[in-house]
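Fold this: Aldo/keto reductase
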Amino acid sequence: MRYTLFGRTGLRVSELSLGTMTFGVESGPTADLDTCRRLLHAYTELGGNFLDTANIYTGGASERIVGELLNGRRDEFVLATKYTGATREGDVNSAGNHRKSLRQSVEASLRRLRTDHVDILWVHARDSLTPVEEVMRGLDDVVRSGKVLYLGVSDWPAWEIAQANTLAELRHWTTFAGSQLRYNLLDRTAERELLPQARAFDQAVLVWGPLGGGVLTGKYRRGEGGRLTGPNGAAPREPRQEAVVTEVLDIAEQGGWSPAQVALAWLRAQPGNVIPILGATKESQLADNLAALRVTLGEEATQRLDEVSAQPLGFPHDFLREPGVTQVVYGDRWPAIEDRRSTPHGAPRSMRRDGAPT
């Protein structure tokens, strides 16, 4: 396990994060505390230090289990939790991003986690009823109180994250150092706005659903994990999805890897500071995912996956890439222009990811 930085903070976090959303489920292998302990041990044995939970995961049981497992060794970990979701039925103010919900959620999380602070607090989702300036000022207050060290944002529109961080910078409040979003070979829509936004503000990107709900592992092809259903209960037969899974399985077989390792290796090779969140229900599954650290996809395999999983960026990105438009914007000598600048992480700019001409 190697380490990267959580945005501009200087905080060192492992290149894979352990998600604990399944800790404390009412049925299944992770209901047993010892199973959760073994999962954490397998992760930390390789040097993992970045744990992701939330106040609403399994009704608060996830935080309680994490708190028990970290008892006596809390400072060894970068501990992240979230707030936004409703925690009490019938209480209209137990949900949302307003100050009352924030304060109550943080205090309750600290009690369950058995700690006096969390390293990272994620805003779990956008609450459109609470103004952005109210959210950012409230978050800055909990950071100044010492109960939260750093901030992250999850499941927000890119334009509003940019608005929030710009507002915070201008008013000298704490900014979002990380962005958490869904991103995988089946769903690359984050490349349209969310990933460019994260790179522009030098945010770490925590990726949830890196295996597409298990679809990219090929288990549904093998008849495992039940029947894959769509919104209306019907098994989807989306050609693009089928093609992506087929390519992942083929590359995995050729390389001697598991499909999950191929999907995770592709994610880890993307521009920017991308950190997949691993969610496991048994030790063998987590071990397989962690083995992705040893997988490096070749240029040919990467190109195959890029092509089969490509999704249109939409307007205005596609429009700005049209040859006639490119010449109008950059002039008739645009092919002679070489952009030698780098992203904040040192990776060359790429037209495929951020729309810059090559």
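The chain has a mean pLDDT of 91. Strands lie at 3-5, 12-14, 17-19, 50-52, 78-83, 118-123, 148-154, 176-182, 204-208, 274-278.
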